[in-house]
Write a structure and sequence with these properties.
about 240 residues; globular; Ubiquinone biosynthesis protein
Length: about 240
């Protein structure tokens, strides 16, 4: 049944999120609207087509309670140490990170994506700026087809148009970078991050096909892929004098 009060509240919250995309609670509060139950069910069905995701729905790995001191004690360049450095650099209290219950597959998708958010920041190299968050949402959209991610991107682009047009290049570059990374990488959904804290960050990135340097090279020279497609092997062909 249509509830005008709830509709007005949602519209107000959406307007606030567009005006100030750094207001995390307003953005997260839109999740039920941007990703309603029917959309979440379709998302689960799409993810089930991937063997790794189907296994994750059975095992349901969670990040769980974070012990920052233990993560900080890990060797440099490990995933866990990089994650701890990320939390400290952004003044994030690990005990304040949201942890949702997950009794259904749809709830598990929400919970896992939410608690993996900062891990994905570390793996993709995106900062926590507005541009970085938009880039990460583009990555999420490419990876899992999240309607929430698409909604955040739409809001971010609206914010760019109305309030931050001077930041359009930085934000669009981040969005394109996130999309390319997400398209090229193996599926990260359902990854057992707790089992990988001690693994080297470069090794984890390689495991999931996250080639940051290759994508950044494409963005720095956008004509390179087209030229190589038209002239295969030209890059390695010897030049004649």
């Amino acid at each position: 049944m249509w509830n005008p009060v709830a509709y007005a509240w949602t519209a107000w919250r959406m307007a606030r999120a567009i005006r100030d995309p750094e207001e995390l609670q307003d953005v997260l509060g839109l999740a039920p609207v941007l990703a309603p139950p029917t959309a979440m069910r379709r998302l689960v069905e799409r993810l089930m087509r991937h063997a790794s995701a189907a296994q994750a729905f059975i095992e349901r790995p969670r990040v769980g309670l974070l012990h920052l001191a233990a993560l900080r004690a890990l060797p440099e360049h490990t995933l866990g140490r990089a994650f701890a450095d990320h939390l400290e650099a952004n003044r994030v209290d690990p005990h304040a990170l949201p942890s949702l219950e997950a009794h259904t597959d749809e709830e598990y998708v929400r919970a896992h994506l939410l608690e993996s958010h900062d891990v994905w920041h570390v793996l993709t190299g995106f900062p926590t700026s507005v541009a970085g968050e938009l880039g990460l949402q583009a990555f999420s959209l490419a990876q899992v087809g999240s309607p929430f991610a698409l909604g955040v991107l739409a809001g971010g682009l609206t914010n760019t148009l109305l309030y931050a047009f001077s930041q359009r290049e930085e934000r669009m570059r981040a969005i394109v970078r996130g999309w390319l990374l997400g398209q090229r990488a193996r599926l990260l959904f359902g990854a057992p991050w707790r089992q990988m804290w001690e693994s080297p960050l470069t090794e984890v990135r390689q495991r999931y096909g996250l080639d940051l340097a290759a994508v950044d090279a494409v963005l720095d020279d956008p004509m390179r892929p087209a030229m190589e497609a038209r002239n295969p092997g030209s890059a390695s062909a010897p030049q004649s004098c």
